[in-house]
């Protein structure tokens, strides 16, 4: 079987795998310079190693089954085409064509799913526009509710309004009070005869309120117990810490070229030009990615365009030219993903082992130094005690000198 390009051969085997009920992957590719000579495509469950875990304890026993299914693709120099030289159709595992669409390689978005995504995006844009051009009326006369109304989106403000409505079922009672600090007991009427009690603390100095239900800590919304205490304290404005920026309708995205529905009326000319270029380049990318020849043509066109644009930019600002292949992302973002290391079991030279050795050596030196200092201190103590004993003997000797003879006993 002969193919014009390597991509056609890969596409043929991929379509066959979808019909047969398995997925494929490129196992190896041999090159001579920049030209591909041959390629080996195998079943995705082809594995050379045998797991040390017993089949009864293995959580995913169908991952590596040493499947022999594969094809070999070679190039013909004289004809300039690609040919499948060897085919192995047998599998070491059952294939299910009805579930092939669940495999990662064969997953595709249906038209209904695409339309659902587009409808959700359109609904989100309409909701964002409604946040700016419409206003939800307040449920109470509270100035705190008006504060949330001015900042939050409609969806989040409706959740806040539910807490203000629930404040009507709360009875607040002061249990303990100190200078700038008060403790309240809030009783919430659940039914005609059942009340749930919650402890709420309020710090007037720090403008901080905390409730036992922990609704703000879990969902980021002040509960009706805390709102009842704030009304009891006659607080007109809450602290900015209770107004989270991620739910604000005036939030600005930190992207310079990506369009945001919040920035639609004030979009910069550079962002508009960027959107137009992206819209037109998508069709070019899809068309050029069909084969290597079209991709090479697009690369050459990019080089010519980049050289022309950089020469024009150099004339204006004196900058040097740069081709699109030489451009790097280091000037944009120096953060890179860590290298991927495929190992089995615990690595012999794990990351940080060198640092651990340095820390161990430093600790060992420190202990040795401390022990040497202790030994010197002990030696000095021994010498000091010996000298003290010697002086004591001398003093004793001085005190034990025999008294002078009594002259009255003279000869």
Can you give a write-up of this model?
With 411 residues, the protein is α+β, with helices and mostly antiparallel strands. Among the domains are: 2-106, no CATH class; 143-247, no CATH class. Helix content is 41%, strand content 16%. It has 9 helices and 9 strands. It has helices at 6-20, 111-133, 143-151, 154-166, 215-219, 224-232, 269-288, 292-317, 353-399; strands spanning 2-3, 24-32, 35-43, 70-76, 81-88, 170-178, 181-189, 195-203, 208-211. The strands form 2 sheets. Strands 1-5-4-3-2 form a 5-stranded antiparallel sheet, with helices on one face. A 4-stranded antiparallel sheet has the order 6-7-8-9, covered by helices on one side. β7 and β8 form a beta hairpin. The longest helix has 47 residues, at 353-399. The protein is extended and about 95 Å long. The termini are far apart. 9% of the residues are buried. The model is unreliable at 253-258, 260-267, 319-337 and 387-411 (pLDDT under 50). Putative transcription activator involved in regulating light control of development. InterPro entries: FAR1_DNA_bnd_dom, FHY3/FAR1, Znf_PMZ, Znf_SWIM.
Overall helicity = 40-55%
What is the 3D form? extended
Q: How many distinct beta strands? A: 9
Return the average pLDDT rounded to an integer: 75
Distance between the termini: 147 Å
Q: Which class do the helix and strand fractions yield?
A: alpha+beta
Low-confidence stretches: 253-258, 260-267, 319-337, 387-411
User: How much β-strand is present in the residues?
Assistant: 15-25%
Supply Rg: 40 Å
Keywords: Metal-binding, Nucleus, Zinc, Zinc-finger
Protein name: Protein FAR1-RELATED SEQUENCE
GO cellular component, one term: nucleus
GO molecular function: zinc ion binding
């Amino acid at each position: 079987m002969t193919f014009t390009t390597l991509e056609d051969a890969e596409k043929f085997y991929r379509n066959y795998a979808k019909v047969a009920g398995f997925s494929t992957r490129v196992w190896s590719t041999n090159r001579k310079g920049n030209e591909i000579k041959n390629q080996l495509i195998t079943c995705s469950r082809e594995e050379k190693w045998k797991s040390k875990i017993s089949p009864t304890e293995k959580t995913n026993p169908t991952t590596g089954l040493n499947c022999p299914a594969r094809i070999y693709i070679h190039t013909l120099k004289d004809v300039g085409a690609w040919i499948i030289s060897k085919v192995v159709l047998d599998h070491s595992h059952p294939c299910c064509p009805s579930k092939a669409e669940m495999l990662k390689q064969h997953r595709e978005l249906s038209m209904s799913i695409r339309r659902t995504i587009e409808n959700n995006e359109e609904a989100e844009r309409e909701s964002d526009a409604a946040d700016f051009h419409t206003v939800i009326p307040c449920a109470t006369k509270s100035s705190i509710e008006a504060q949330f109304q001015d900042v939050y989106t409609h969806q989040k403000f409706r959740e806040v309004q539910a807490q203000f409505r629930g404040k009507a079922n709360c009875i607040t009672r002061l249990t303990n009070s100190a200078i700038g600090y008060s403790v309240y007991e809030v009783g919430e009427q659940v039914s005609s005869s059942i009340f749930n009690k919650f402890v709420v603390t309020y710090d007037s100095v720090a403008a901080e309120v905390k409730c036992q239900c922990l609704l703000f800590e879990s969902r980021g919304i002040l509960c009706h117990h805390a709102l009842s205490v704030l009304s009891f304290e006659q607080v007109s404005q809450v602290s900015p810490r209770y107004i989270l920026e991620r739910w604000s309708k005036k939030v600005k995205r930190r992207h310079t070229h990506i369009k945001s529905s919040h920035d639609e009326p004030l979009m910069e000319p550079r962002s508009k030009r960027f959107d137009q270029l992206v819209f037109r380049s998508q069709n070019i990318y899809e068309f050029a990615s069909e084969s290597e020849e079209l991709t090479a043509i697009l690369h050459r066109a990019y080089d010519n365009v980049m050289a022309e644009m950089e020469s024009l930019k150099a004339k204006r600002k004196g900058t040097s030219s740069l081709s699109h292949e030489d451009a790097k992302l280091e000037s944009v973002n120096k953060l890179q993903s860590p290298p991927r290391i495929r190992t089995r079991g615990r690595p012999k030279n794990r990351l940080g082992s060198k640092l651990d050795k340095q820390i161990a050596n430093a600790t060992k030196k420190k202990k040795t130094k401390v022990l040497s200092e202790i030994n010197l201190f002990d030696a000095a103590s021994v010498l000091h005690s010996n000298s003290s004993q010697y002086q004591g003997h001398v003093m004793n000797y001085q005190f034990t000198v025999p008294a002078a003879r009594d002259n009255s006993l003279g000869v």
